[in-house]
Amino acid sequence: MKAGVAGWPVDHSLSPLMMQAWLTDAGLAGSYDRIGVQPDAFAATVSRLRDGGYRGINVTLPHKQAALALADEASEGARACGAANLLLFSPDGIVADNTDIVGVEAALAESGWRAGVGPAVLIGAGGASRAALHVLNASGAPVRIINRSRDRAGELVRSMGCAARIHGLDEAAAALEGARLVINATSLGMKGQPELCVPLDALPPGAAVFDMVYAPLETPLLKQARARGLKTVDGLSMLIGQARPAFEAFFGQPAPAGPQVRALLEAALEERA
């Protein structure tokens, strides 16, 4: 049983470590590979992997929208997001899904946030924001988007048929006023990237902050939130959450339960620090 993760770059991905640990724990014979694919080679690579006996692949940046376009069939979530992070291969064709939605839902469940408590703020309008916007829109919560380019945020909202108020980075303080949830869906704060500089002073007690970045685990945004006593959730929660349904789709049984895989990923991140 063969599967993998395709992206560019993909050397940093923790997914092979996680999936292989689950395979070993479950006593399954299988492999899960890193597959580096430049954008212009994505379609040809998918065809080669399908012919080469792969059951499917996870898809990471920058291929998620291209993955959906290649599919013969797509889940409702993938269509709603306009992107897929999972392709399953069969003799009848390619099926696309978006398990990032499950990952976001897992992170929000950990945060304790509920849609009825107040507005949610999404920072970013790139590919990583699509699953979060879908989940927030489905919850019925008022959504505010902060993005450097207001036009790009507007295009995202229109393409997904969602409702949201759009703010530029210079309006971050106003956008965060009274919000009960903040989600960072940008790469800002990641190792090697600039910090995400937004003021959390306007957040009320009990608000939650979820950062999709997991390297480092404690980003400057989460450090600021913890200093204010706010609930925080790091990017590993989403990474593990989205991987569980993918593992079952590839290998035919649920991923083993338990916290061991998180400890394994935390150790790997410490070694890379």
Q: Brief description of this entry?
A:
With 273 residues, this protein is α/β, with parallel strands linked by helices. The chain is 41% helix and 19% strand.
How would you explain this protein's 3D organization?
This protein is α/β, with parallel strands linked by helices. It contains eleven helices and twelve strands. The strands form two sheets. Strands 2-1-3-5-6-4 form a six-stranded mixed β-sheet, with helices on both faces. Strands 9-8-7-10-11-12 form a six-stranded parallel β-sheet, sandwiched between helices. Helix 7 links the parallel strand 8 and strand 9. Helix 1 runs antiparallel to helix 11, helix 5 packs across helix 6 and helix 5 crosses helix 10.
Distance between the termini: 33 Å
- Form type: globular
Looking at the chains present, what oligomeric state does this protein adopt? single chain
**Major beta sheet, specifics?**
6 strands, mixed
Radius of gyration over all CA atoms, rounded: 18 Å
Number of helices: 11
- Poorly predicted parts: none
Secondary-structure-derived class: alpha/beta
How many E-type strands?
12
| Rounded average pLDDT | 96
